[in-house]
Amino acid sequence: MRTCIAVGPSAVALTFVFTITAAAQSGAGDADMRATSMLYGVALKCYVTLAYARDERRSAGDRSKSEFYGLKARQSFDVAYQTGEKIGLTDDRIHSDLESAQEAELPHLMRDEQYFRSMGATCKAVGLL
To answer: Does 4 reside within a domain?
Structure first.
């Protein structure tokens, strides 16, 4: 049973944040769209990761942490949805992408503790944890 997500930022996560920040600050439409698309993908993964953390904490009987991760999962979903709309995705496409993210991410999260911690660090680095 996992007790929490490690929150120390990784080099990959920091590089990602700097890339998004630089692209968004450049003012270029294409760069802004790429940055928003990248954030969309990360927010989907964070939603799945944080919902998984919520369920793990709930199973362990840790109501406080379960509620915390549940709130962060909801915030990640909201960011994913808003950024998806910003890049012109339909409601159906966003929900399809969410299902795909769940199918792709859950097996990794369940069997690979290091991946789980790395995703937690990424979510923290982009402000979703």
So the answer is: no
